User: Which sequence fits this backbone?
């Protein structure tokens, strides 16, 4: 009798102490989007005057407040009088909440409609607080009938004044050419 009781206790201990091993990958904290939205339309105003509009087909919001626009982003800048002055488009967009900084990447196109200036690059940053756009990537700028190529650029957020950092070359545009 004692023997059966002892074997039962040992068997119970052996079977109850066994458990499945847990895969560490399953224990990772989720860091993906906590919110998703479609057909985004954001308006930034200053003293009841519209300064910019942001549109995007899709927006992902993360726990830390950062945003991602995986299907592209378009930002429009307006003059104090309310005229559309500049458009900025990118294949993908990101907003870093901590730095209050937007970043566009992919095929980035900026156009100042009033001054007839265009910019093309693969990455651009917009510091909304400082009202500046900038990049350290290769840039092509078309100003009327002249193309400028360089690496690195700083401009006001309306792209009406800019500084090209490392100019590589410039040339007159041939008929049918441009960015």
Assistant:
């Amino acid at each position: 009798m004692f023997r059966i009781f002892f074997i039962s206790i040992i068997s119970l201990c052996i079977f109850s102490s066994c458990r499945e091993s847990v895969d560490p990958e399953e224990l990772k904290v989720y860091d993906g989007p906590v919110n998703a939205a479609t057909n985004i339309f954001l308006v930034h105003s200053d003293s009841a005057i519209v300064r910019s509009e942001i549109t995007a087909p899709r927006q992902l919001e993360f726990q830390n407040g950062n945003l991602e626009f995986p299907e592209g982003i378009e930002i429009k800048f307006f003059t104090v009088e309310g005229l559309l002055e500049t458009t900025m488009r990118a294949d993908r967009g990101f907003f870093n909440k901590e730095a209050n900084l937007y970043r566009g990447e992919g095929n980035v196109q900026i156009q100042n409609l009033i001054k007839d200036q265009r910019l093309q690059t693969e990455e651009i940053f917009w510091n909304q607080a400082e009202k500046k756009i900038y990049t350290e990537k290769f840039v092509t700028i078309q100003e009327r009938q002249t193309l400028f190529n360089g690496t690195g650029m700083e401009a006001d957020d309306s792209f009406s004044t800019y500084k090209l950092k490392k100019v590589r070359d410039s040339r007159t545009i041939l008929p049918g050419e441009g960015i």
Observations:
- The CA atoms of residues 22 and 28 lie 12 Å apart.
- The first strand starts at residue 35 and ends at 46.
